[in-house]
Amino acid sequence: MDGSKKRKKNKQQQENNDIVYSESQPEDFGHLAILYPSFRSFVHPSPPHMRLTIDWTDFNAIRQLTCVLLHRRHTLTWWIPGGQLCPTVPNRSNYIHWLEHLLSSNIIPGTISSDSKVRGFDIGTGASCIYPLLGASLHGWSFVGSDVTDVAIEWAEKNVSSNPHISNLIEIRRVQDNNAPPCVEVEDLVNSDQIALCKKTDMEVAPLPLDLHACENKSYRGPPILVGVVRDDEKFDFCMCNPPFFESLEEAGLNPKTACGGTSREMVCPGGERAFITRIIEDSTQLKQHFRWFTSMVGKKSNLKYLVSKLWGVGVSIVKTTEFVQGRTYQWGLAWSFLPPVQKSSISLSNKKNTSFTLEGLQRQHGAINVLESVKSYFSSYGLSCSLNTSSFTVDVAVTKDDCDSILRNELTIVNDSTDCQPTRETSNESSLNFSLERLCFRISVFQQIPGTLLVKGSLQDKDSPLSGAFSVIFQKLEEALRSKFCTKSL
């Protein structure tokens, strides 16, 4: 990539507020070898530049690297026995950084614990107990870490007790394998190209129209994940999970370049990560009041697309995704919540003459005419006299000061009016909403950008009107109502 293209890409990422969670600064293995003699024997020069590195296919080398990084960066004492899944510190730290960003974003209501302290639940914490250790040491979060095997429970408890400065923040909970959990059916997508996720990372994901067909059924069969493990009186700010990514040990062994270990219980699940995370989604529908955020790591982007569609199908209020990049490894974070998004407590009046927004992810039957009809329904619900001209795509409304006050005082969701109208095929159809010039006058235009996306533009006609300051607020409330109807899945 030449300089100009790279600068253009960086500028575009900044404009889109893209965030990729990645610890890009490489560790100095030579310096670590000096500080930690136990690590020295694993470090060797690598041709052609003879840069110091380790053998990434050697489990012992990776385990020792994790041990020294946790001590060097986080003052943590840590170890696991051979054969257990050995985490890479940068990748796990990226997940914690993303969670911290979610929790501090105020997208949904604040902490749900009585003492305002953040509390997390780590599904399948493993012998390493890596996420609770990092979350507690970095942010002072408290955790419940769950697992099912004796080895995982034993060593997770050892790793917690080896760090007395945070041990009071972490509880290790054994999950009883009842061998008869309810099955969660997972459907493969036949027409996966129907799903188009935005390339932005750390993004809110709009509901997507899907045509799902069950061509292959796979189900999760294993111990309880959340339901049956979370207690009735417990509340958490989030759950997190590094799920079993593979459907078989053969699939797990296809990458010969790493040796991070891992038992079959840690690496393999019938149906793979798709079935496991689908089970978390199903559990979340029963525990929606127990968690602010449900989250999971996802290893395959094709599974991410499926899971996003599954989430909108069960009626979540918000979905967010991000990308974790470490070296050549790409993974994704998936988060969802059933809590209503926080509404801004106050809206400042503005004299902006023009404003606009896009409606994305619309189903095929929703076109410009449908949006106009909903605009008419919105203002009619306030008792205003409205007339819709379908040939010219206009809605005429007279708004007085009292009408403005009524709209600004109330938050109203558009009435779900039914319509049989089909989407328009023109790409430049303009629809207008005109107000009387002697009162508040502005125009709303709707353009079809691409299938499933409409641009809604508002233009103030009389900027000198004494009511012009209310224009941006009324337009914002109209935007909220339109998004509520056309861009949000409901149960």
Automatic annotation (TrEMBL):
Ranges for region Disordered: 1-22
EC id: 2.1.1.-
UniProt keyword Zinc, yes or no: no
GO cellular component: nucleus
GO biological process per UniProt: rRNA base methylation
PANTHER family membership: RNA N6-ADENOSINE-METHYLTRANSFERASE METTL16 (PTHR13393:SF0), SAM-DEPENDENT METHYLTRANSFERASE (PTHR13393)
Family classification: Belongs to the methyltransferase superfamily. METTL16/RlmF family.
Name this protein carries in UniProt: U6 small nuclear RNA (adenine-(43)-N(6))-methyltransferase
Species in which this protein is naturally found: Vigna radiata var. radiata
